[in-house]
Amino acid sequence: MRLNEYARKIAVTLLLEGLKAVDPQRLILERVKVEEGVLRAGGREQDVRNGVYVVALGKAAGEMARAVEELLGELVRAGVAAVPRGSPRVELRRVRVIEAGHPYPDEGSLEAARLALKLAQAARQEKLPLLVLISGGGSALMEMPAPGLTLDDLRRTTELLLKSGATIDEINAVRKHLSAVKGGQLAAAAHPSPVLSLVISDVVGDRLDVIASGPTSPDPTTYSDARSVLERYGLLDKVPQAVLKVLEEGRKGERPETPKPGDPRLEGVANVVIGNNMTALLAMEAYARRMGLNAVVLSSMIQGEAREAAKFLAAIALEVKRSS
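Above: the chain's sequence. Below: its structure in token form.
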């Protein structure tokens, strides 16, 4: 086997090992334990003896929900999992799977959000915990437009933002202020019932308010921040007028802000990251060392344009080759 082919084989092997380490079902079963009716994850405990409602959103929602059903069985009262259209079929007993649009929300996204809010309200009324399973892609897969907006308004705005070059933090700052479920609003709907979120992060730095637009996390951004993003990328004259109207009303205090840090409605919320970029990188490093390679994790924080990151990584590879 030629050297290049051998090197490629090693790279592919390590990549698959990293993906295996962040398999959604594996993460849930390894990092979440249930003993005598108490669910434990990341140092948090939640009594689930009387039952629990489940909301899952994101590209890993189906697999995460399946693992939770395996762990909790009949303790799952009901649930919803919003998954991308065309995903491999997942058979669940208690959790309803809804296919929705990505990266642009559609009617499935709306249906999933309606059911999620209904489950949050049921948890509140019955004084039962709400278990939320969050992964990347959840922003589009579960959506409820704020009053005065339509799904088309959100779809058009999302499309413009994605094409503008805005960062995911900036995009989600806008999304949260045009939505009735993002930016801590899903968790607030369940208050005062406890909310436990298990999160697989696809965001550099694991910012909980950014992953899936933070449906269970306080939102540090404001209506003014959202408008500033649109202005920064020259979108004020391109987004629907209804969007500008909502943001302006919010800036004037005529609409309630998203829940902020310290909001009493989020006092009973715990967010636990069970997997992220570093999880995969450490698994790859460990496997490489077992293969006899001198492996080291350079960073889990690289972000920006893919072509620019590629230049940086290629430069490192050339330096290693030159000095070896």
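The CA atoms of residues 222 and 238 lie 21 Å apart.
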